[in-house]
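Sequence, structure tokens reproduced for absentees:
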Amino acid sequence: MILEVIRYPHKVLRTISQDVGDFDSHLHELLDNMYETMMHKNGVGLAAIQVAKPLRALLINIPREDGEQHKEDLLEIINPVILESSGQITWSEGCLSVPGFYEDIERFNNVKISYFDRLGNACEREFEGFEAVALQHEMDHLNGVLFIDKLPLLKRKKFEKELKKNGYKVV
């Protein structure tokens, strides 16, 4: 089922998500619906809070070199914790909750995380480049942070001015 993606400036996006405790059929259904929603919206990542579920769950599905996303590449990441980070990378980021806006954001180029899969199995993995960027972007959502919060003041003001021009109330 395709879910509604919450858009900025909706205050639910500022919610700090809670740890997932039950790795049950409700979680599996949420993850499946999030995947269907993300693919429908042409996204590469989606956090549960973006579909109004304040749970520490996120998906990432990076396209391959041919530009296609394959379900076998899907990462379902529950209760992630960054263990290590290094390097810097600047990436032009966008967000399903901030449609039509892209901006260069500086992130760590390498991150190592611990997390759980949909069955509750403990996992540990290293990410680099685009995968690391997408992971950090989605993990920010779990903490009520959006990529626009990382913009320098002048770019943030420009973004807010553009929103107001298009009839959005900025909070």
